[in-house]
Write a structure and sequence with these properties.
- The complex is a heterodimer of chains A (399) and B (450).
- In chain A, strand 14 and strand 15 form a beta hairpin.
- Chain A has 399 residues and is of the alpha+beta class.
- Chain A is built from 11 helices and 18 strands.
- In chain A, helix 2 runs parallel beside helix 5.
- Chain A is globular, with a radius of gyration of 20 Å.
- Helix content of chain A is 28%, strand content 25%.
- Chain B is globular.
- In chain B, helix 4 packs across helix 5, helix 9 crosses helix 12 and helix 10 crosses helix 11.
- In chain B, strands 3-2-1-4-9-10-19-21-20 form a 9-stranded mixed beta sheet, with helices on both faces. In chain B, strands 11, 12, 13, 16, 17 and 18 form a 6-stranded mixed beta sheet that branches. Chain B has a 4-stranded parallel beta sheet with strand order 6-5-7-8, sandwiched between helices.
- Chain B is an alpha/beta fold.
- Chains A and B meet through helix 2 and helix 3 of A and helix 7, helix 9, strand 12, strand 16 and helix 10 of B.
């Protein structure tokens, strides 16, 4: 971010932060979106990042985000023209063109899509979002909690199939989800059309900046890690350096400094996000979860167990698209809507069940969700019960 | 020493070779790198011993930046980008190789459903333009081709029929999921076709001079070995093979199938893992020019620093790994006859920090050449499937594993030696329940295994 704009140079940090807030596998394989966004910003120029307060409260705006699979999007990348279709559809309903874009959620690939949309449309991007993380359903938002209507929902596929849905929030989710599957695995959506003035109460403010800030932290530490993506050095037999486009060079001399690189990164991440470290150690179990999935959710439930080196406790993580619960020796210690994140000690990158294998070493972090998510309504929409777990969130204990 | 194997690493106008057989290893160096010199080197190395196979690491000879030819790149998608948004590549290597870039309507989704009809007229027009510009190779990348290659095959047929002199690379034969990475791999593959033809022909010719029963093979970047025919068609598979061969060599010399391996060089260590005799691979590692290619490559972690730094870093990694720690001197000295002193010092320093169960390997020949001699057939599959129940998943997974085993058999594995090394069914987020990505790795013992 240069001043108040997002430039090509910010994309690697945005990508790293997007992986962090994806809370697991939703961040798997989104590097393609970094290259894609860099190319778009190189052609369109920077995107202006503004706070809601900086805009006229009457400015028409809408949330932009993709629904569906990042793997499908990596295989079928957006053409870059999709936001034009969304803007046309929504402007028709507003009776006026959109004046700004806000992210559905500033995490995973949806941290990048609104930036691309703002770039292609030449509009400012509002520094906020409606989740502060990734939720599986597009109506699990603070916009919804504040009473904004999800519809009319404009959606467009990579094949340029487009639709405008006028219905209730949950119904819009169900219909759009089934279309997503038929449309190639993902849809870009424009939703929650509103006026900027409504965002004061409805949005989580500063989300884009936070994603960038955490991404920068991860990038700085990545140059300190003992990994191919974090260390530069020619292999013993000579030849080209295996340097990835999205990583910077490092000195690789961490062993002198006394603290393991993952410990330094954890310290900085907890300071930056208010996270707590639930534990860390070897992944000792990983596979499909025996529990039944609620039919409303896409994907399949998974579970994994981490053996915490220090305490000897077993930390069981239940995942369903995202990491949903953490239980230490059977006791619930963290749950949605708080974010559960896994740090790969080897690569110093955020990771998830799809990337991991038994034997890998990870740290488990819990980042507190935005306060609105801990309200009764917030927990009803995004707490353990919404994912089919008949459990009270740890913060509800004693209420 | 009945029935030996030879491994050769070509690079920088030199060749370093190792003969492995009968529990002994001999080494040789050819400083000229010309055909006659190489033949003499192999003959001298064999010393009359029957040689069953010569396996070549030619990755240094397949540098796309210096020896790649211009390519026409055709992307098949349901909606070609009107303004070219998001079509650029951050590595300068790709724009340098692509002289003509085009998009054509077509493609399938992950599960093989057609998203748009293939525009064969546009395919024809682009191929004609490529030929008119004097381009010799065309890279075809269709969305969804990993699940359904129909549009790539149809487009290739159109091109080959109308422009038989244009060579075609098809993305589904080259890499796995992820259009941009696979497209990059397909472009690099197409750019290397001519060069690979020359290199392969030369190696096969030289190997053949050892006798009619000596077969020629090539080390792949995943640590397996592939035939001459396969490398001619898919030269991208032969890239970054040296590290994979060195890992294989280290494990073989240490006498273990599973290990965490530190390859010591003069400036640092490269750390990798070997499982069931094959190097651990990843598809998101940067290849030539930093380009990610959706092609499996041995996963290596370079660690720089002083001997003490790298020794303590490796000791920490080894402490947390359940498998045997192996530290090996990688890379020969400048004269090729003796191991590099700095690398040897680094390896010994690292070994001194390890427990007694670890193994220090000081190879009597170049490690990558020894590893090349020991490579075995392997196969890798990356696909998506849909299974409503765990029974259906098990059945489809078994079918995919069988396909991988068949590929291993086709790569010269001894009948019955084929095995599944790893098989993972990963639940795909945000797609309908029952959607999985399947990653299968298989290996086998070669027919010429002594």
């Amino acid at each position: 971010m240069t001043g108040r704009s997002i430039t090509v140079a910010d994309v690697p940090a945005l990508l790293a932060g997007a992986e962090f807030f994806s809370t697991n596998a939703a961040g798997e394989g989104i590097e393609f979106a970094g290259f894609w966004l860099e190319d778009i910003l190189a052609r369109t120029g920077p995107v202006e990042l503004v706070t809601a307060d900086e805009l006229d409260p009457d400015t028409p705006c809408a949330a932009v985000g993709a629904m569906g699979s990042t793997v499908a999007m990596a295989e079928l990348p957006p053409s870059g023209e999709e936001p034009l279709v969304l803007a046309r559809s929504l402007a028709g309903r507003f009776g006026a063109p959109l004046g700004a874009i806000m992210p559905l959620n500033a995490a995973s690939v949806n941290a990048l899509q609104p930036v691309a949309a703002a770039a292609v449309l030449g509009l400012p991007l509002i520094d906020c979002d409606g989740m502060g993380r990734v939720f599986p359903l597009i109506h699990q938002t603070t916009y919804e909690l504040a009473g904004l209507s999800l519809s009319p929902l404009a959606a467009v596929s990579a094949g340029n199939d487009s639709l405008l849905l006028d219905t209730g929030s949950a119904r819009a989710e169900q219909i759009a989800r089934s279309i997503t599957q038929a449309a190639g695995g993902w849809l870009l959506c424009g939703m929650y059309p509103t006026r900027v003035g409504r965002l004061r109460e409805a949005a989580i403010h500063g989300s884009v900046s936070r994603t960038l800030k955490v991404g920068r932290l991860l990038r700085e530490h990545a140059s300190d890690g003992a990994t191919a993506q974090a260390l530069v050095g020619d292999p013993p037999w000579g030849g080209a350096s295996p340097w990835p486009a999205h990583a910077g060079p490092g000195d690789g001399e961490w062993s002198r400094r006394g603290t393991a690189p993952h410990e330094r990164l954890l310290r900085d991440l907890t300071a930056a996000t208010g996270a707590t470290v639930l534990g860390g150690g070897r992944v000792v179990e990983l596979g499909p979860s025996p529990r039944q999935a609620g039919i409303v959710y896409p994907g399949n439930p998974m579970s994994m167990v981490v053996h915490d080196h220090d305490s000897g406790r077993l930390i069981r993580l239940e995942a369903h698209n995202e990491l949903v619960l953490a239980l230490a020796d059977g006791a619930l210690t963290a749950a949605v809507p708080d974010l559960l994140c896994l740090l790969d000690r080897g690569t110093l990158r955020m990771t998830g069940p799809e990337r991991l294998t038994v034997g890998d070493q990870v740290d488990v972090l819990c980042v507190p969700a935005a306060p609105v998510w801990h309200s009764v309504h917030g927990l009803g929409l995004g707490g353990p019960g919404a994912f089919g777990f008949p459990l009270r969130h740890p913060r509800q204990e004693g209420r | 020493m009945a029935g030996a194997r030879i491994g050769v690493r070509l690079g920088a106008g030199q060749a370093r070779a190792a003969l492995v057989g009968g529990g002994r290893i001999r080494h040789a160096v050819c400083r000229s790198g010309d055909g006659r010199g190489l033949s003499r080197m192999l003959r001298d190395l064999a010393q009359g011993t029957p040689v069953r196979s010569v396996t070549w690491d030619v990755s240094a000879e397949l540098d796309p930046a210096s020896s790649g030819s211009p390519v026409a790149s055709v992307r098949v998608t349901p909606r070609p980008p009107a303004r070219g948004l998001g079509t650029g590549h951050p590595s300068p290597l790709l724009p340098a190789l692509v002289r003509l870039q085009a998009a054509v309507m077509g493609g399938h989704d992950l599960f093989g459903v057609e998203l748009a009809t293939l525009d064969i007229y546009e395919v024809f027009r682009v191929a004609a333009a490529a030929q008119a510009e004097g381009i010799g190779a065309l890279a075809l990348t269709a969305t969804g081709a990993v699940g359904c290659p129909h549009h790539e095959l149809t487009a290739a047929e159109v091109v080959r029929e109308a422009f038989p002199q244009l060579r075609v690379s098809l993305s589904h034969q080259v890499g796995g999921l992820g259009l941009l990475d696979r497209e990059a791999a397909t472009v690099i593959n197409a750019a290397l076709l001519s060069r690979a033809e020359q290199v392969v022909a030369r190696c096969v010719r030289i190997s053949g001079r050892l006798g009619a029963s000596t077969s020629a093979w090539f080390v792949a970047g995943d640590g397996g070995r592939i035939s001459a025919e396969r490398l001619r068609l898919l030269p991208v598979l032969g890239l970054s093979a040296t590290g994979a061969a060195a890992l294989t060599g280290a494990a073989r010399l240490a006498g273990v199938d599973d290990a965490v391996v530190g390859l010591a060089g003069p400036d640092g260590l490269s750390v990798g893992h070997v499982r069931d005799g094959l190097p651990n691979v990843a598809t998101d590692r940067p290849g030539p020019g930093g380009v990610r290619m959706a092609v499996p490559q041995a996963s290596l972690t370079p660690i720089r620093g002083s001997h003490a730094d790298t020794a303590s870093a490796f000791a920490l990694l080894a402490e947390h790994d359940q498998h045997t720690a192996v530290i090996a001197v990688a890379g020969g000295g400048p004269d090729g006859d003796a191991p590099d002193e700095a690398a040897t010092g680094r390896a010994r320093s690292a070994a001194a920090r390890l427990p007694s169960t670890s193994v220090l390997v000081e190879p009597p020949a170049e490690l990558a050449a020894i590893g090349a001699a020991g490579t075995e057939p392997s196969a890798w599959l990356d696909t998506v499937l849909y299974a409503e129940t765990s029974e259906v998943l098990a059945r489809k997974r078994a079918a995919a594993e069988q396909r991988a085993l068949t590929l291993v058999a086709e790569s010269g594995a001894r009948l019955g030696s084929e095995r599944v090394v790893s098989s993972r069914a990963l639940s795909l987020s945000f797609l309908r329940s029952g959607s999985y990505r399947l990653l299968v790795r298989a290996g086998g013992r070669a027919e010429d295994d002594a």
